[in-house]
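Dig into what follows:

_____
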Amino acid sequence: MSRLSALHARARLLYREIAKFGVVGIAGIGVNLLIFNVLRWTTGLQPVRASVIATVVSIVFNYVGFRYFTYRDRDRGGRGREIGLFTFFSLIGALIENGVLYVATYGMHWDSTLSNNVFKFLGIGIATLFRFWSYRTWVFRTLDGAATEQAEAILTDAERGAQIRPGRPRP
C-alpha cells in the first residue's frame, strides 16, 4: 500500500469516526440542553446545579452511543477499565463545561435564560474537543498491534491483487 493511499484510508476512517462522534455528540447536546432547561423551568434549580445534573444524564447517554455506535469496532476487553476511564475523562469534561457556565453566571453576573444557554453551549463545545481527544486516545482504544498489523496486511494483499494486470507476473 503506498503512503498516499494509506494516508487517504486513515483520513477516511478519521472522518467517519468524527461523523459518528458528531451524531452521538449532537444527540447528547440535545439531551443535555433539554434536561438543563426543563430543570430550570420546573424546579427553579440554580443554573450550575441544573447543568451538572443534565451533564451527568448526557454522559450516560453518550457512553451508550459511543460504545455501541461510534466505537463499536474497538477493543472491548477490560470493560471496567473502559468505564472507569470514560467516567474520569467525562468528569474532567463536566468540570470544563460547567466551569464556563459558573464563571459566566457567578463571575460575570450574566444570569438570564439566554446567557445561561449560550454559556452552557459554549462550555459543551470546549469540553467536546477535550472529550473527543481523550475518548479516542484512552477510552475506546483501537485493537492491539497484532490485530491492526493483520488487518493492514490483508488490505495490502488486496491492493496488490487489484494492481496486477493479466499477463504480468505477481510481485
Observations:
- The helical segments are 3-43, 47-70, 79-107, 113-139, 145-163.
- Residues 3-155 form one domain.
- Residues 3-43 form the longest helix (41 residues).
